[in-house]
Amino acid sequence: MEDTVKQEDHFNEKLEKGDFIEPKDWMPEKYRKTLIRQISQHAHSEVVGMLPEGNWITRAPNLRRKAILLAKVQDEGGHGLYLYSAAETLGISREELLDQLHTGKAKYSSIFNYPTVTWADIGAIGWLVDGAAIMNQVMLQRTSFGPYSRAMIRICKEESFHQRQGYEIMVALSKGSAEQKQMAQDALNRWWWPTLMMFGPPDAISSNSADSIKWKIKRETNDELRQKFVDRTIAQVEYLGLTVPDPKLKWNEARGHYDFGEIDWAEFNSVVKGNGPCNRERLKARVGAHKNGEWVRDAATAYAKKQAAKAAGSLVA
Amino acid sequence: MSNSNNEWPLWEVFVQTKSGMPHKHCGSVHAPDKEMALQNARDTYTRRNEGTNIWVVPAAAITASSPEDIGPFFDPSNDKAYRHPTFYTIPEGVKYI
User: In A, which residues are within 8 Å of B45 by CB distance?
Assistant: First the structure.
């Protein structure tokens, strides 16, 4: 018992000093659990995030856009793998992590439960959704758990192209025909609010926020990040000649920030609970992809076994 | 740790980013054998020409020092300031040393 108290003191001292916590270090059970939940949710979001964009790979308007989208989706897959690998250092297996996703026990970012109905949605996702994710991820580069921080540094290096390619699509559409500009506006209308929801519930009611800040897993709160995102994005919207679907959006001179309207948290909660437009479709596609890959995994395992047996045989001979 | 039987083994990945540089740990991959471990590591960790060479090492083969012993384990070097060049006084005016 006394040992645990000492260990906890030592753990807190390390956090205080700004040291990183590494997998073999002692850590409170709740710190470990919080991290497993957060890192795995993050990994699942990268993986499920491939689906709405994958929808447009075969229908990208030209070869350049197609190659870019393919590279972006591959990156998301890679980012999922970095994060699974970081989560596994906390003592959970890859299989358990995937099971939790496939059975619906683990969550992924709700944003991916919205459909991508036009090409402009690919622009809006890269620009807004990846933009919001980057804001969060830049902060997480300084998270207190070493493997998570290192994964985030890699991801941030790669992610910036995702946002820029999205904005480039929006620029092309908003400078195009009236119909194309309308398509861009329509995508912005549909993605704006769900993007703001990505930062999570308001600080006042966010159940995980306080611990995460105390343990330096997060360094900025949901509301702080959300405000920063709005402040940085509005000028980009204006350049496109588009408007955000929020009549209450207004620059507040006194605060030095934009004020914005109330977020529909009932919608957010309903999508989190599984009632978004695409929850079932996404999970079905993910489980299907895993099942359809089973014979490939089995074949690779069988091949490895056979080669190992052969090598053992030749040693004996 | 909680590996079940049908999960592929874990490999730690070390990438050399430029010729002449040391290999640096960058994460891990699962793979049934060493060839696939190398290919998975390439696809996962070097999508942008980040590598000139990759090592994959079975995670189970790595022995690490334990964080609890950090004091006693490293303290033999703590009291040997004379291993550092700044320990020595060189007369003023003496150059190139």
Answer: 78
CATH 3.10.20.520 applies to domain B5-67: yes
Hey, what amino acid is at A175? K
Residues of chain B whose beta carbon is less than 8 angstroms from a beta carbon of chain A are 1-4, 6-8, 10, 26-30, 32-33, 36, 43-45, 47-48, 64, 66-68
Task: Supply B61's token pair.
Answer: 């083969």
How many angstroms from the chain centroid is the CA of residue A160? 14
Q: Out of A22, A81, A86, name the one closest to residue B44 (CB).
A: A81
Chain B residues lying within 8 Å of A95, measured CB to CB: 4, 6-7
Domain ranges across chain B:
5-67
Burial A233-266 (b: 16+ CB within 10 A, else e): bbebbeebebebebeebeeeeeeeebebeebeee
Min Cα distance B90 → chain A (Å) is 36
In order along its 317 residues, chain A shows pLDDT tens digits of 567 888 999 999 999 999 999 999 999 999 999 999 999 999 999 999 999 999 999 999 999 999 999 999 999 999 999 999 999 999 999 999 999 999 999 999 999 999 999 999 999 999 999 999 999 999 999 999 999 999 999 999 999 899 999 999 999 999 999 999 999 999 999 999 999 999 999 988 877 778 899 999 999 999 999 999 999 999 999 999 999 999 999 999 999 999 999 999 999 999 999 999 999 999 999 999 999 999 999 999 999 999 999 998 877 65
What is the C-alpha to C-alpha distance for residues A61 and A122, in angstroms, rounded to an integer?
A: 11
User: What is the pTM (predicted TM-score) of this model?
Assistant: 0.92
